[in-house]
Structures are given as structure tokens and as C-alpha cells.
Amino acid sequence: MPAKNTRKQYAADSYYHLYNRGVELRTIFVDMQDYRVFMSYLKTYLLPKDTVLLQSIISDQEKNWREKDRAIKLLRLNNFTDSVDLIAYCLMPNHFHLLIKQHDATAIDRFMNSLCTRFTMYFNRKYKRVGTLFQGVYKAVLVESDEQLLHLSRYIHRNPLDLASQGEALRNLRDYLNSSYSVYLENSNHKDVKWLHPEYILHSFSSSGVNSYQSFVEQKEVDEQAEYLIDDLKMDET
């Protein structure tokens, strides 16, 4: 029997929870550089590509070969600005979560194959290893309602609490640097994250108080019906 969420239902203009973990549960983000590289890949795939600037660098006689080589690589790189909107993310030591909206039915597969292949190449080169990094193909599950969408974002942003339960220091969720939660709280360090689209979620909440997104995420209890609502959207534990 196939593992949970390996059979994917692709549909245009739809929301998905995408996730994967390291093969044999291995750590895939060993240090902060690894987190930053993964997020830099998200940025380059999701921000509009400035082809005019890149072409001008390539044709500029005063630019050195390194600058030109980088411009050529960026020019050739896949770009998903018009086909994928990243709504929320959380990178954990041995797995990641992405919440996206795809605008055409083939966007997810192309985006995830590019992202995971590129990060695996970086990781293997850095740590002098060969072979697969992730536990099979990425998992994808279709979000079927607005209510599911909101509670799934809460689930993703609360993932770092597992680190606290394992004894690692975490004063509060906004302190975790490797998720989109601080963007949702308008952290000054993330105001330029134009490749993220929290508006899909935040329009359902007030800016402060008991009806704010922060209150929604950080409340310790959530009703059982809401938990049941997203049970099939969560990462499988096997």
C-alpha cells in the first residue's frame, strides 16, 4: 500500500500541504547555512526573474567571469513566480513543510523536483556524500476548505514546539528563525520577504487581540473538531 499522501491529486488554483523528511530520518539542516541556502532557493524560484539585468551583466565587458557565470546560471534557472504562491513554511532539522497555492496543474511537481534536486546537490557537495537525501518523493495533500487552510497554517507554524519538548531552547514561536511565523507577526527582519504570501491567511484575522492570527496560533487548546479537520493533512509519522 502506498505511503500516506504519495498519491497526489493535482488541480489548478488549489492549495496543498507539501512535506518531506530526510532519508532514514537523518538531519537535512545541519547548520544555519543549510537553512539559509534552502530559503535562498525558495526566494530565487519565487521572485520574478530580472532578465534584463541578468542579460546586461552577461554583456558587460567590465564584469568578471564569476559574475557572468552566476548571471547565466540564474537566467537558466527555473522560475515559478506566476505558477506558485508560497503561503507558509517551516524548516525543521530533519523535515520541512510548505503550504502553497499552485495556479496550474503541473506547477507543484516542477517546483518540488527543482527545489529538492538542487538542495540535494548542495547538501551532498558540502558534506561529501552521494545518493538520495529525502525519504522518497515529496508528499502532497490537497486542502479542501478555507477552514482547513487556516488550521493547516497553524499546524505548520506550531511545529517548532516539538523542539522545546525535546529539550532544545525555544522561548516562543516567534523566536524560531526558520519558519514564516515571524513574517505573519510583521517581524522587522522579514519585511522584505516578497516571495511569501501571508495575505491568504491573514485576511481572516484581526491585527491584534483575541481574534488575531497570533492568538489563533499560540492558544494551547484547539477544539477536537478542528484537529480532526486537518488530520489527513498532517505529516505521517512513519
Plain-language structure description:
It contains ten helices and four strands. It has 238 residues and is of the alpha+beta class. Strands 2-3-1-4 form a four-stranded antiparallel β-sheet. Helix 1 packs antiparallel against helix 4.
Topology diagram in text:
Layout: E1 14-21, H1 32-46, H2 51-59, H3 65-76, E2 84-92, E3 95-102, H4 107-127, E4 139-143, H5 146-157, H6 161-165, H7 181-184, H8 199-202, H9 213-218, H10 224-229
Antiparallel strand pairs: 1-3, 1-4, 2-3
Helix pairs in contact: 1-4, 2-3
Question: What's a concise summary of this model?
Answer:
The protein has 238 residues and is an alpha+beta fold.
- Helix-residue proportion: 25-40%
Tell me the radius of gyration.
19 Å
Number of helices: 10
* Biggest pleated sheet: 4 strands, antiparallel
Secondary structural class:
alpha+beta
Characteristic terms for this protein:
alpha+beta; Alpha-Beta Plaits; single chain; 238 residues; four-stranded antiparallel β-sheet
